[in-house]
Structure prediction request, 313 residues.
Amino acid sequence: MLNTVFYYVLNMSINACFIILFMLLLRNIRAIPRTFVYGFWSVAFIRLLVPFAISSPFSLFNFTGNLIKRIISVDTIITEFEKVPFDLSTTNAIGAAKDYFPVTYKTTQIRDIFVVSSNIWLIGVLVSLLTAVILYAFTRAELKKAIRIRDNIYSSPMLMSPVLVGIIKPKIILPSTFDPDCSSAEYVIAHENVHKKRLDNLWRMLGITIVCLHWFNPFAWILLKYFFADMELSCDEKIVKNYDTAKRKEYANTLVNFAEDKKLLMSAAFGKTTVKVRVINVLNYRRMTTIGASVSILFLLAIAAALITNPHL
Prediction:
């Protein structure tokens, strides 16, 4: 059973590599708002998490040739009431199996390899998840003595930059050296409130969990790095879209002041991500027109459909 699960995980990981490479190219198109790019990373996460997809003649994978060895059709999805037909399929990029429900390998040698490797994979998953949990627990313990200033705003001497901690009742925690009534506080608190409203700490946790399942894939860790980067860039865009040039410069200056931070794993921090990139993005921000936004959305939806579907059966 475990080796069957790992077989599907490995196939999903291979498929996701194409998506991640494409995304690395897509995010370099500066005309596309970072908010759209940030949301678009969900396509890669879906590929890493869901083994089945709708088959389509427009799928990007129609152009991968022999890199996708075989497409296995899933005739129906069984619901509580009736069989509902869907043109679903899963890929067999590895090409080591002859049957798939459950996986039956072509030779006993291949089976033995997957039995061993699936156990190694499970150990890696458990170690990765345990490490994430320990780091999160350490973060919570480190900030437990934070002093409440007002509302959900706290202060802690353990921080060098502001962070949003928690998911259900998140707290904005400021460094104790930071004056919550200074002019920069407006930008810091607004930034963290955007993270709070978008539930970014939840998506951060889900992203880390999914990547832990694919710990053996270096592209998954690359995905996580740029997902976090685009999370911050999109948050900056949300804040500065209504600012004039002078306020954007003040916001950028605040970013520079908090360039050093403690890199807390599951907390959205104001000073995270390459500050140079964020400052340039803020200072060069241009509000997109309605037509431009509509074109970008249609373009990304078409690309998403091509990336999230399997080759045509």
Notes: The beta strands are 53-54, 71-78, 83-91, 97-100, 103-105, 147-150, 153-156, 163-165, 171-175, 268-269. Residues 2-308 form one domain. The mean pLDDT is 82.
